Amino acid sequence: MASQAASAFETVVRVEDGEYAVSCRDLQGLHIALQRRLIKLILSYLSQDTENISWSGIERMRFAAATEAPSTWRHDAGSGVRCLREYDTMRWIKIPPEGGGLEPGRYVYEIREGMAYIHAVSAGWTFRLQWLDAASSGRPRPASRSEAIFDASELRFPLMIRNRLPGDRIHVLGLNGSKKVQDMFVDEKIPPSGRATYPLLCDSEGRLLWIPGIRRSSHALAGEGSRKLLHITASTGE
After folding, report:
1. Integer distance in angstroms from the first to the last C-alpha of the chain?
2. 147 burial class (0-12, 13-18, 19+ CB within 10 angstroms)?
3. pTM higher than 0.85 for the full model?
4. Which of 29, 56, 97, 209 sits at a 20 to 30 Å CA gap from 125?
5. Closest residue by Cα to residue 70 from 60, 82, 80
């Protein structure tokens, strides 16, 4: 069984930055006894004190990968290890010391008029900005949800890239009224562990303008009367 667990680990487990991940389907495809062995093996890599993790704890993590189980789930397994289900993936991570949990610190990055580039290190995203004359550039359209175009005269500077605050809402273009950012993250299946650092674009008056890669607001739309445009392209990494 130990040999089979090691082989399964090499086949189905992804290891990155000290985290261990396996798809729910791959885990459920193993024999029940092998599922338990594989979970124990992952735990042993994360902590030298896994004997304190009970059999019932192992079963709880195993059942969390089932098709009928909730699509998002979190469990502190003990010995400084946390297990998460994020849609179709099970993840095991080491809890940061001093009870830091998964919640990172707040961050805010300012965008002032004329800036061409900003790397939001805390978010892991890069934003490239083009300031366009509407008369000479015509009416460009975003090629994807990773781009947004605003009437620059309707924006209140400095703009801000920040992470989510409790109660954040956005007036989504094409929808009546506003919608909670949290609900949009759920709709788009953004993993819970990534929601706290996901970047939002706001203006200096606190209006939420854009959730990159998801949806933009109805504020500062470019139109026939626009003279100056701001074209922003967002991407992960540098």
Report:
1. 44
2. buried
3. no
4. 97
5. 60
Query: What is the per-residue burial (b if ≥16 Cβ within 10 Å, else e) of 26-55?
Result: bbeebeeebbbbbbbbbbebbbeebeebee
3-state secondary structure of 159: strand
Query: 108-236 domain in CATH 3.30.365.10?
Result: no
- Order of strands, sheet of 215-216, starting from the edge strand that comes earlier in the sequence: 108-111, 159-162, 200-202, 208-211, 215-216
Digit-coded pLDDT (tens) for 136-171: 877 788 999 999 999 999 999 989 999 998 889 999
Strand order across the beta sheet in which 14-16 lies: 14-16, 19-23, 89-94, 81-86, 72-78
Give domain limits for the chain.
Answer: 2-99, 108-236
Q: What is the pLDDT of residues 78-103, one digit of tens each?
A: 878 889 998 899 999 887 554 344 34
Q: What are phi and psi of 219, to 5 degrees?
A: -85, 145
Task: For residue 60, give every residue at least 6 positions away whose Cβ sits within 8 Å of its Cβ, in sequence order, or none.
Answer: 75
Q: Looking at the domain covering 2-99, what would its CATH class be?
A: alpha beta
